[in-house]
Amino acid sequence: MAETAYGVGIGWRPEIAGFVAGLPGLRFAEVVAESVHAHGDLPEGLPALLDRGVTVVPHGVRLSLGGADPVEPQRVGHLAAVAERLGAPLVSEHIAFVRAAGIEAGHLLPIPRSREAVDAVVANVARTTAELPVPLALEPIAALFDWPDDEMSEADFLTEILDRTGALLLLDIANVYANARNRGEDPLELLDKLPLDRVAYVHVAGGAEHQGLYHDTHTDAVPPAVLDLVAELCARHRPPALMLERDGDYPPAAELRSELDAIAAAAGCPAVTG
C-alpha cells in the first residue's frame, strides 16, 4: 500500500454505507475488523466497494497489543481471516490495551511510555504478525492522561516500537493534535521527530473540548487546527492515504462531503466527492 497513492478515504460504517457507496472518486476505505465475520456474508455494501476496486483495510480495536497478557490467538486469527476476505494490503491496530486479568474495559486505554511497556507491545506484535498474511500498521491513541512512570517521550516510544517490530505507522493526526493540546505542547514537534516514511495511512477526525480537556470524539467536525496539521504533515511527507473517521452522530451528506473536500484541499489531493 505504501507504494500507491489512494488519496482521501473514509471509515465505512453501516449507518453511512449508502453515502460511502456514492462517492465517485473513492479508492480507499477502512472497516472495523470486529464488525466483519470471518465466514459468511460480508456486511451489506462492502462487496460493492470491493467490486469497484476500492481498497478496504480492516482496523482492529480488540487485540489489546499493549496489554501485559499475550494477545488471544482467536482474535489474531479473526483479523488475519478478515484481511484475506477483503484482499487487504495491510491491517491496523492500536498501541493500547483493552483488557487485563480477563476484565474487558470496553475502551482503548493508554499504556505507560516505559521500556517494560515497549517490550510487552513488541512481544504481542510479534505474536500477531507471525499469523498475519499482510503487514501491520500501529496506531498511537489519544490519551487524556499520561502515566506517572513514563520514561520516554512519545516520539522515542513510538520509534522504538516501530524499529523493533518492523511495523508500519497508522498516524492519527487528530490524536497528535489532541495529545499536544492537552499536554500544552506543540504538535509539530512530534511530527518532526516521527519516522514519517513509515506512515501507511492517516486518520483525520473531529473532537471537542469538555471540562478543560480536548476529547477525540469522532462525532464532531474536523476543526481547522487539525486540517492545518494535515497540511503540515503533507508538506513534510505525503502519506499514501488520509481517512475521515466518523463514529456516530452523523451529519447530513452535504456536511460529510464538505469534510472530505476540506481534507483533500489541506492535503493537496483530488476530491473523492465528484
Could you please describe the fold and organization of this structure?
- With 274 residues, the protein is an alpha/beta fold.
- The protein has a single domain, classed as Alpha-Beta Barrel (TIM Barrel).
- 35% of the residues lie in helices and 22% in strands.
- It is built from 9 helices and 12 strands.
- The strands form 3 sheets. It has an 8-stranded parallel sheet. A two-stranded antiparallel ribbon has the order 5-6.
- Helix 4 runs parallel beside helix 5 and helix 8 runs parallel beside helix 9.
- It starts with 6 loop residues before the first strand and ends in a 7-residue tail after the last helix.
- The mean pLDDT is 93.
Provide keyphrases for this structure:
274 residues; alpha/beta; TIM Barrel; 8-stranded parallel β-sheet; two-stranded antiparallel ribbon; 35% helix; globular; Xyl_isomerase-like_sf; MbnB/TglH/ChrH; DUF692 domain-containing protein
Strand content: 15-25%
CATH superfamily: Divalent-metal-dependent TIM barrel enzymes
Order of helices and strands: EHEHEHEEEHEHEHHEEEHEH
What is the straight-line distance between the termini?
A: 23 Å
The count of strands amounts to: 12
Please state the average pLDDT score. Answer: 93
Oligomerization status of the protein chains: single chain
Helix content: 25-40%
CATH class category label: Alpha Beta
Pfam families: MbnB_TglH_ChrH
Protein name: DUF692 domain-containing protein
InterPro entries: MbnB/TglH/ChrH, Xyl_isomerase-like_sf
Organism: Paractinoplanes globisporus
